């Protein structure tokens, strides 16, 4: 997993840089689920390379006296878990004691560290930022995360650490499922219930470095690899930063998987952290399903399930075509249903719709509901093809692709979902010039 962690003391501009790298302000405006999301991690892309940016500042809570300790801990965790660390400092204040302390920790790390001098908004500041060479951490990158200047050069360097994205050399062609969710929702209990005592742990797969353990499951006609993060507890001191740690593990499990099983505790419902994970899965084009666990602890009548489902779908909009299953791991209710559904999602994610069937159905849909003409120009779709890839992508060849607007794309997506089962799978639609 390619994880870029932004560390630094408060107010240097970490979250502004985070927003710039991930463009999450745009995402928040787009969000019509009505939930304010405190996003501390998000997928980003630069020159075709994908990575996840983590704003460590977002995980520091509490009063001032525990603040510095918490920041130190974030730095330790970033050193352990991230692939690249951006150490952010503020040119307008210069080096503070806490900056020096953080630099000390980072100098001992073997991970690539970039010193990022923020708020370099005019030429004079460029000279001032030279003082940050005193950290002994190499090159200082001058940026203004408000205007975006300098971030391009920085990103060029950062992504040079990430391997070229290659067509997955699939060492074992098995579906990879990851159970993710907040602490205590029941992830380990589900893993244990599924695997029983026969934990056949696939640890050593030649030629690859692994961030997580893959467990080979092969029972009742279903065979897959379960990405296990629960089993990987931190070796070093476990303490208050469980959230940050579990987020890092979640990102890695998610990136390594084909299908993400997002587990919730029925007593808490779906919260902003869950929605963040859900969107991360969607953005990464992973299959996804939701499991509402501890259903045994909920007082129910005939409407309860439906109401729960509706509330969840409202909050994950607009991508709502995902399975939702209600389980009790302790009562062994519907736990195999989870496996079956996850395998269905995998099948949906990997299936190829025959071109003739695709054209028969979708050209008729388009004929009945053509895209609106613009300035008297009619848009004619000639044919449709599914593009090979790790998740479903469709190209619609037409005369004026630039005239196709988002509402029509959404309409087409809904029709594809209606006619061909893509439950649990993000799909991409492109209109292209013939
Ligand atoms: P994890 O942190 O997500 O791996 O959660 P665990 O599997 O450790 O479970 C946390 C707690 O919730 C444990 O005490 C479990 O026994 C309990 N638990 C898990 N699933 C259920 C369930 O379906 N119903 C109830 N009542 N408790 C559950």
From TrEMBL:
Domain spans labelled EngA-type G: 2-166, 175-350
Q: Entry's Pfam families?
A: KH_dom-like (PF14714), MMR_HSR1 (PF01926)
UniProt binding sites for GTP 2 = 181-188, 228-232, 293-296
Chain residues that bind GTP 1: 8-15, 55-59, 118-121
Q: Does the keyword Repeat apply?
A: yes
Q: Does the keyword Repeat apply?
A: yes
For this protein, the record's PROSITE patterns field holds:
G_ENGA
Q: Which GO terms describe its molecular function?
A: GTP binding; ribosome binding
Q: What is this protein called?
A: GTPase Der
Naturally occurring in which organism (per UniProt): Sphingobacterium phlebotomi
Provide the taxonomic classification: Bacteria, Pseudomonadati, Bacteroidota, Sphingobacteriia, Sphingobacteriales
State which gene encodes it. Answer: der
């Amino acid at each position: 997993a390619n994880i870029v962690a932004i560390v630094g003391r408060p107010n240097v501009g970490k979250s502004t840089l985070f927003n710039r790298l991930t463009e999450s302000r745009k995402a928040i405006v787009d969000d019509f689920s009505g939930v304010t999301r405190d996003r501390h991690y998000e997928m980003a892309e630069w020159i075709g390379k994908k990575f996840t940016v983590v704003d460590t500042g977002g995980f520091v809570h509490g009063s001032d006296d525990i603040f510095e300790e918490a920041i130190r801990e974030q730095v330790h965790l970033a050193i352990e878990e991230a692939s690249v660390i951006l150490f952010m400092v503020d040119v307008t204040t210069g080096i503070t004691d806490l900056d020096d302390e953080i630099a000390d920790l980072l100098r001992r790390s073997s991970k690539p560290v970039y010193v990022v001098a923020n708020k370099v908004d005019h030429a004079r500041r460029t000279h001032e930022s030279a003082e940050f060479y005193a950290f002994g951490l190499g090159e200082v990158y001058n940026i203004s995360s408000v205007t975006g200047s300098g971030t391009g050069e920085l990103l060029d360097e950062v992504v040079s650490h990430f391997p070229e994205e290659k067509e997955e050399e699939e060492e074992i062609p098995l579906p990879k499922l990851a159970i993710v969710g907040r602490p205590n929702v029941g992830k380990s209990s589900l893993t244990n219930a599924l695997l029983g005592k026969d934990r056949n742990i696939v640890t050593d797969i030649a030629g690859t470095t692994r961030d997580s353990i893959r467990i080979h499951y092969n029972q009742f006609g279903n065979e897959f690899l379960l990405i296990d993060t629960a089993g990987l507890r931190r070796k070093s001191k476990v303490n208050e930063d469980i959230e940050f740690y579990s987020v890092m593990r979640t990102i890695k499990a998610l990136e390594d998987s084909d299908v993400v099983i997002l587990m919730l505790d029925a007593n808490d419902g779906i919260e902003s952290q869950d929605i963040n994970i859900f969107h991360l899965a969607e953005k990464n084009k992973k299959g996804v399903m939701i499991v509402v666990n501890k259903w045994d602890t909920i007082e129910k009548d005939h409407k309860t399930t439906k109401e729960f489902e509706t509330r969840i779908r409202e909050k994950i909009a607009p991508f709502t075509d995902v399975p939702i299953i209600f389980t009790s791991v302790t009562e062994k209710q519907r736990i195999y249903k989870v496996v079956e559904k996850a395998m269905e999602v995998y099948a949906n994610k990997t299936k190829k719709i025959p071109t003739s069937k695709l054209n028969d159905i979708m050209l008729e849909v388009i004929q009945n509901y053509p895209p609106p003409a613009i300035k008297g120009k009619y848009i004619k779709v000639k044919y449709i093809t599914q593009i090979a890839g790790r998740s479903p992508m469709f190209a619609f060849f037409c005369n004026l692709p630039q005239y196709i607007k988002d509402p029509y794309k959404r309409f087409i997506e809904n029709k594809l979902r209606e006619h061909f089962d893509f439950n649990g799978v993000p799909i991409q639609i492109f209109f292209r010039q013939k």
